[in-house]
Amino acid sequence: MPQAVAKSARGAARKPAPKILRAKQKAPPRIGIVSLGCPKALVDSERIITKLRAEGYELSADYAGADVVVVNTCGFLDSAKKESLDAIGEAMAENGRVVVTGCMGVEKDKIVAAHPGVLAVTGPHQYEQVVAAVHDAVPPLHDPFIDLVPPEGLRLTPRHYAYLKISEGCNHRCSFCIIPHLRGDLASRPAAHVMAEAERLVTAGVKELLVISQDTSAYGVDLKFAESRWKGRPVKARFLELCEALGSLGAWVRLHYVYPYPHVDDVLPLMAEGKILPYLDIPFQHASPRVLKAMRRPAHQEKTLDRLAAWRRTCPDLAVRSTFIVGFPGETEQDFELLLDWLKEARLARVGCFKYEPVEGAPANVLSGAVPEEVKEDRWHRFMAAQQEVSRELMAAKVGCSIAVIIDEADEEGAIGRSKWDAPETDGSVFLNGATGLKPGEIISARVAHADEYDLWAEPR
Ligand code: SF4
Q1: pLDDT at 13 exceeding the cut of 80
Q2: pTM, 2 dp
């Protein structure tokens, strides 16, 4: 599902398009980047800027200082497409030299019709084409060997956590989703490549690795679980083996976008042993078998409540985060009530909910039984209220406990961090009011003093 907008270079003062005089001035050319969409798109942006930085380009924090602006778009929902077109329009108005890439790049005609002056449009993962378009717009000034790029690459996340993308694309064909159309079938990275990147990140100071893909639990299926050599030993491109290897690096390892396949059971002991975080991000989307079938969801026949119970027997402090869609075509009141009952029983730690929105090109658009907007709205509120109850109880149970907290921000008034059960950006925070002398990335022990339905307040021990 779409995640929050990652980083934006928006907000710069309006100014005429700069003339490109860099070669004459012998100053390094400067790139602005606007990155929209999910963490996967953010990783794409990181790869693009890493490549350009290695070639001697500098990054500009605003439009005015950029010789060319790269806009990495999101095309997941119609609202995301609109946001992408608006971002391109803003970059055109503020700078005028714009290269477009990302998921919406597959709809080049639409982009060019709205913004005929864009320099180039490329699709998702077309790193070479993006870089070539930047070269055309403003040639690199330096040879790569004199440019100082850290071995872990350049990232848009804080220094202490990093997204680790283990595969691209998806073999499923959920009826509401066009990601396989945009990004193709599953293409996993060899385990040795993933591990080498993870190790470089940890060596550079990363304390938390956030494993992402479209379907993390399917990792390696396309490679037939092929072995590759990391640190002189073979590692299989398989979910369990990858989790074991990542768990040996000494960083927090958080698993996102997992489906409840039977083999997911195998990683629960690693969580119970503290090798990877007791956290699973599973986009269930619904609980009614009828709706799940219409959605064509992976693992939709799994008895998910039984699986959750079994996982909790192995790892009692497991936190499950999930997202849901209400108002999917054909969702009846009975389906929705089944979802509410399931939600109350599942006792998920963190939950997001979207009102169904048709996506251009998605098979679900032809389904009958559209749910009226006011019914979607009503169901969304009922869903959120039911989850708030659950969440309040789960959070209240943590009061008085000692927990590990990773510090995200710190100043003279205190610090803000996260527990093992909270991913950055999407989940809750732990507030350490008055706790000074802490640094981002530090992992401390704290005693929980207070809780609401989303956040905790704690004191360092
Ligand atoms: S699992 Fe379904 S929703 Fe997720 S990327 Fe694949 S097709 Fe889309």
Answers
A1: no
A2: 0.74
